[in-house]
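Section 3.1: Structural characterization of target chains.
Under the original work plan, the team committed to producing a structural model for every single-chain target entering the pipeline before any wet-lab resources were allocated. The record below documents one such target. The sequence was received from the expression subgroup and is listed exactly as submitted; it comprises 219 residues.
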Amino acid sequence: MTSQERMKDATGQDYSTLEVARRLGMAVRSIQLMVDRGELTAWKTPGGHRRIDRASVEAWLERRSSSSAMPLDEASSKPTPTKTSSTPSSGRQSLLLIEDSVHFQKLVGLLIEQQFPELDLHIASDGIVGLAMFGQLQPDILIVDILLPGIDGPTLITALRSQPQFARSQLIVLTSLDEAQRAPYAFALSDVPVVHKPRLVMDLPPLLKTMAHKTATQS
């Protein structure tokens, strides 16, 4: 018996993948990828079932403690402070980026500053805050990462599609996952342009140009 198995038998401090997915408000596939990336500690039972250490889940939640813990159905209606690259002006288009990587937040911010100064950029670092900010801002363009803390991208997109005001927003999905890894999220990604993070600098600007022009002509 391994040391992890002895700890599990002695304390019972573990969750199933589904239990963690429900607790964090994410898809099971997102939790599996978090384990693969080492963000959560897990092992497998003799029967082949994955168990996730409760302490690692609590530690992950602690690292994300600055995020609001409001329920999904309340998040879109409660105002949340925004992080912006500039102060929105009347008549300007707005872009909401929901992305937890500081590196990619800065990279998108740099692209906007250099190539799209007419866009007001707002940033949310997790799905719950992003959902709240969408309800507050109703942005012209929305960029969503797939793997997000709080609420993962596909779940957030599905929630937003039930809101009438979402119809006026242009959506882009941003992800580090390749096509095979994106397959479990096909239900939310249908007919949505997807930018692979390694190609962000090349692929995002033309998409933004097209969408900014489209929203400008619609207004």
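The first helix runs from residue 3 to 11.
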